[in-house]
Design goal:
Blueprint (H helix, E strand, L loop, with lengths): L1 H9 L6 H13 L5 H4 L5 H11 L4 H5 L2 H6 L9 H10 L6 H13 L3 H13 L10 H8 L6
């Protein structure tokens, strides 16, 4: 079933509302985490398509995969990054901050300056870049990142 979902997505025409709604209904109504499979698509056009598609999925399903969504910020030049920022910004009251904190911890351990910079960029864009939302430790880590977009 998961392979079928990925294949359906790869063949999806975003302008075909019937096709789009069929896939959305299947993902939104499933107890399985079918959406997670879509995060492993490869290719510029598929990433861009995914960024648009995610804006149409119930955010609860996106939230289940927020760790993968944050990986988008390992390189903010990936196609669809601005769509992902808009998606996160429009749902920022629903975001589990611990997932952002976890991504910062992983990026710091991996010494991934690009990812830390991308997270910093995201947080500034959605106005989460303040001590009241992100822990002091994470803020200190992000402040130490010398990163230019």
């Amino acid at each position: 079933m998961k392979q079928r979902i990925r294949k359906q997505f790869e063949e999806l025409d975003l302008d075909n509302l019937s096709q789009m709604n069929k896939l959305l209904n299947e993902i939104n109504s499933s107890d399985d985490n079918l959406l997670r499979q879509l995060f492993f698509v490869r290719g510029t056009m598929l990433l861009y398509k995914l960024s648009i598609f995610l804006g149409k999925v119930d955010f609860e399903k996106v939230q289940e995969n927020f760790d993968l969504l944050l990986e988008w910020f390992q390189d903010i030049n990936w196609p669809g990054t601005q769509n992902i920022i808009l998606l996160i910004e429009s749902n920022k009251t629903l975001i589990d901050i611990s997932k952002i904190e976890n991504a910062i911890t992983i990026a710091r351990k991996e010494e991934d300056i690009e990812w830390l910079g991308g997270i910093k960029y995201l947080l500034k864009e959605i106005d989460f870049y303040r001590d009241t939302v992100i822990s002091k430790e994470s803020m200190t880590c992000l402040e130490s990142v010398d990163w230019v977009q």
